[in-house]
């Protein structure tokens, strides 16, 4: 028998319905948020999308003074009066501890998002002028601008990339394992992607967090990682089936395999999470949302590979056997 | 054992070569780290040019290259993407607005004469004399001290200009630059010799304005108008800030992972840490040699790959521990630990490489950087986590029985307690099990 002395720490098969319930609890709030967003947002997207996909311009200015949230409303009003349509303003406060490493004396960054500043428009000059009046020595530190047609193309390309990644993984897993394993792994991935998108949808509603090109990159990385985790468990199931299929039931083998790989699954996720947390807290402000998406994805990916995917494989196997018995 | 020692020296050689490469080769940093502008320009059709052909794109690229070179910045990039776009990268720009304005202008110079629209109202009509007939343009001042743009026509242009002025004596002739009327002097007599001046009209030229026009005229007009459809500009302060932060995050992340590995796996953990340092050295040397331009997203990919590189070691050590618990000797346990973990490592890394390939082929340049560094990381980690760690483990632990289970983070009473592995004959031969 496998693991005679060590007790199984988790019971995937026995508490199957509880794991299904937990999965539902994890996913439903995000799904609701996505549906709510699709209905209420003017562009009917399930998450708040940034200029990469809608087109637009973001100007960032570095300021010496610390900004308050009350400055946002004032600046918005002034910009609107200067003739800027619907400016969206965000303030990023730079950690004073980090700032010692650099020579800059920027204490906060004000980020202004407007519609795409096209050739011939002098909106950028207007904004610079207005900020010069309001604050001392604002320094233009970055400009990103995406034309509306570019945005549509980027969006299309991202969807193609995600679809191709899914197909590539299914093809590889079907080739290396069995098709039903591949399907379980893909459902696990879908589970993780829905969770991360759901959380970002909620963050979009509550804190105006927007998704950009990097978000798709994060999702694709999460897909890779989630499959990675699932493969390790499946690989163990495959191996144990070779040796024990006559002595133990399929469910027992699944449970044993999950427990054998449990330390590894958790430790791997921990080391990756450690590096990501370092990036989140000490890395640049611009990649923060990107890192957050990966943190969420890797945490949920570990859960899904342990509980969700192996449960599915066992569930199908059960149903197949029942079908055989009745037939 | 001889093979193992040979392998050890090979690893040492790789480390030395990598270290030398790191010191010798420069690091290529992306625009988001050094500061700079990245623009995507899209060619637009006009009445006369209804289709953007490869020939038009080549001429547009040439004209833009001329202008970008005039900015006097090193390592600029102008390349065609798709069938009607140009990617332009200009590092180290300080005046973001200036560079942009300079690139987008069509710089179409045209001489026009008086004419009548179908409804009888006066309009300016083309004469056929344009910027293409110019030999060169210079900045100078006129008799009153005003800045003017002096023009010198080529042979054909000089003749056209002479004929034109002869025909227009007593009438006004207008000079348009990018569709904007600059001045409309009255022609008093025919002008031979192929020289002319543009004054800034009634208000005159400011120095900057005149200088920009001269530069644009000398660089040549764009064959078709082009507009900026995407821009990413980062000032030098933000870039420096990003580098400092990424360094800090990388060092903290790497150290935390190393501490974790030692705490959990003891001696093998330490070996994995050494492999991890070697991994970072090789990967960094690879970045410099290929060369890979490091961007912020690329650095994130690199730091993420550290976490993934350790994964292979965790898989192997967990497996080795299980084998030791089953009471196997060190040599067998280490070998079968590596061997059995290999399929998992290989399969999971393949899926990461599949996603990276897709990202690289379809992504924007930011995404490409991330995909490339992550894929390289995964490939290098296959070498470092498997070959290097295995070699060190064998050299350090040898072939005897495990006398101090604590070295592996195991308890004495655990040994021989669990996991009855059943191997096939072939596997037994491979792992070196003697029953």
Kindly summarize this structure in a few lines:
Chain A is α+β, with helices and mostly antiparallel strands and about 325 residues long. Helix content of chain A is about 65%, strand content about 10%. In chain B, helix 1 packs antiparallel against helix 10, helix 7 crosses helix 10 and helix 8 packs parallel to helix 10.
Describe the structure.
The complex is a heterodimer of chains A (327) and B (435). Chain A contains 10 helices and 4 strands. Chain A is an alpha+beta fold and 327 residues long. Chain A folds into 2 domains: 209 residues, Multidrug efflux transporter AcrB transmembrane fold (Up-down Bundle), CATH 1.20.1640.10; 91 residues, Alpha-Beta Plaits (2-Layer Sandwich), CATH 3.30.70. The N terminus of chain A is likely disordered. By secondary structure, chain B is α+β, with helices and mostly antiparallel strands. Chain B has 2 domains: 227 residues, Up-down Bundle (Multidrug efflux transporter AcrB transmembrane fold), CATH 1.20.1640; 198 residues, 2-Layer Sandwich (Gyrase A, domain 2), CATH 3.30.1360. In chain B, strands 2-3-1-11 form a 4-stranded antiparallel β-sheet. In chain B, strands 5-4-8-9 form a 4-stranded antiparallel β-sheet, with helices on one face. A 3-stranded antiparallel β-sheet of chain B has the order 6-7-10. In chain B, a hairpin with a 5-residue loop joins strand 6 and strand 7. The longest helix of chain B is centred in the middle third of the chain and has 54 residues. Chain B is rod-shaped, with a radius of gyration of 34 Å. Chain B starts with a helix and ends with a helix. At the A-B interface, strand 1, strand 4, helix 6, helix 8 and helix 9 of A face helix 4, strand 11, helix 7, helix 8 and helix 9 of B. Strand 4 of chain A pairs antiparallel with strand 11 of chain B.
């Amino acid at each position: 028998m496998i693991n005679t002395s060590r007790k199984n720490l988790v019971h995937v098969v026995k508490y199957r319905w509880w794991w299904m319930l937990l999965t539902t609890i994890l996913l439903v709030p995000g799904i609701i948020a996505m549906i709510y967003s699709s209905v209420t947002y003017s562009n009917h997207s399930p998450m708040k999308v940034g200029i990469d996909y809608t087109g637009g311009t973001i100007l960032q200015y570095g300021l010496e003074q610390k900004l308050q949230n009350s400055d946002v409303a004032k600046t918005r009003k002034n910009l609107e009066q200067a003739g800027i349509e619907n400016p969206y303003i965000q303030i990023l406060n730079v950690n004073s501890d980090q700032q010692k490493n650099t020579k800059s004396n920027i204490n906060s960054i004000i980020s202004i998002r407007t519609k795409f500043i096209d050739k011939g428009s002098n909106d950028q000059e207007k904004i610079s002028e207005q900020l010069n009046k309001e604050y001392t020595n604002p320094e233009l530190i970055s400009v990103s601008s995406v034309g509306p047609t570019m945005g549509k193309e980027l969006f299309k390309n991202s969807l193609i990339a995600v679809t191709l990644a899914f197909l590539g993984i299914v093809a590889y897993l079907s080739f290396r394992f069995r098709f039903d394993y591949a399907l379980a792994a893909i459902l696990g991935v879908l589970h993780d992607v829905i969770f991360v998108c759901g959380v970002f949808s909620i963050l979009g509603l509550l804190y105006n967090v927007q998704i950009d090109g990097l978000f798709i990159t994060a999702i694709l990385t999460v897909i890779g990682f989630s499959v990675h985790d699932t493969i390790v468990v499946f690989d163990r199931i495959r191996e144990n089936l070779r040796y024990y299929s006559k002595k133990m039931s399929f469910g027992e083998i699944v449970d044993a395999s999950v427990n054998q790989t449990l330390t590894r699954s958790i430790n791997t996720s921990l080391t990756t999470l450690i590096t990501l947390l370092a990036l989140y807290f000490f890395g640049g402000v611009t990649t923060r949302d990107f890192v957050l998406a990966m943190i969420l994805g890797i945490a949920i990916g570990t859960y899904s590979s342990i509980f969700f995917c192996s449960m599915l494989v066992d569930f199908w196997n059960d149903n197949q056997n029942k079908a055989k018995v009745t037939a | 054992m001889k093979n193992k020692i040979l392998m050890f020296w090979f690893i040492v050689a790789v480390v030395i070569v990598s270290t030398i490469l790191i010191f010798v080769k420069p690091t290529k940093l992306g625009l988001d780290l050094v500061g700079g502008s990245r623009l995507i320009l899209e060619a637009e059709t006009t009445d006369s040019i209804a289709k953007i052909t490869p020939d038009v794109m080549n001429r547009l690229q040439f004209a833009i290259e001329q202008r970008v070179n005039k900015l006097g910045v090193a390592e600029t990039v102008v390349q065609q993407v798709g069938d009607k776009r140009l990617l332009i990268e200009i590092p180290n720009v300080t005046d973001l607005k200036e560079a942009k304005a300079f690139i987008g202008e069509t710089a179409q110079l045209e001489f026009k004469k008086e004419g009548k629209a179908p409804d009888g109202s006066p309009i300016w009509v083309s004469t056929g004399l344009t910027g293409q007939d110019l030999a060169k343009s210079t900045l100078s001042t006129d008799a009153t001290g005003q800045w003017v743009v002096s023009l010198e026509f080529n042979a054909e242009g000089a003749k056209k200009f002479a004929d034109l002025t002869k025909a227009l004596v007593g009438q006004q002739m207008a000079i348009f630059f990018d569709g904007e009327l600059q001045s409309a002097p009255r022609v008093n007599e025919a002008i031979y010799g192929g020289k002319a001046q543009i004054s800034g009209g009634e208000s005159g030229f400011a120095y900057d304005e005149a200088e920009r026009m001269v530069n644009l005229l000398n660089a040549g007009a764009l064959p078709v108008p082009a507009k900026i459809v995407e821009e990413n500009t980062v000032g030098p302060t933000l870039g420096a800030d990003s580098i400092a932060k990424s360094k800090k995050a990388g060092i903290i992340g790497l150290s935390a992972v190393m501490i974790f590995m030692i705490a959990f796996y003891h001696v093998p953990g330490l070996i994995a840490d050494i492999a991890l340092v070697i991994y970072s050295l090789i990967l960094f040397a690879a970045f410099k040699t290929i060369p890979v331009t490091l961007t912020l997203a690329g650095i994130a990919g690199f730091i993420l790959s550290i976490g993934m590189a350790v994964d292979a070691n965790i898989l192997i050590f967990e497996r080795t521990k299980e084998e030791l618990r089953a009471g196997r000797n060190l040599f067998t346990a280490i070998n079968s630990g590596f061997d059995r973990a290999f399929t998992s490592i290989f399969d999971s890394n393949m899926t990461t490489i599949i996603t990276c390939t897709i990202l690289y082929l379809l992504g924007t340049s930011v995404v490409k950087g991330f995909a490339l560094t992550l894929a390289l990381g995964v490939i290098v980690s296959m070498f470092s986590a498997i070959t290097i760690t295995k070699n060190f483990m064998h050299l350090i632990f040898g072939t005897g029985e495990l006398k101090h289970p604590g070295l592996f983070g195991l308890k004495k009473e655990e040994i021989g307690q669990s996991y009855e592995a059943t191997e096939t004959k072939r596997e037994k031969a491979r792992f070196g099990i003697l029953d």
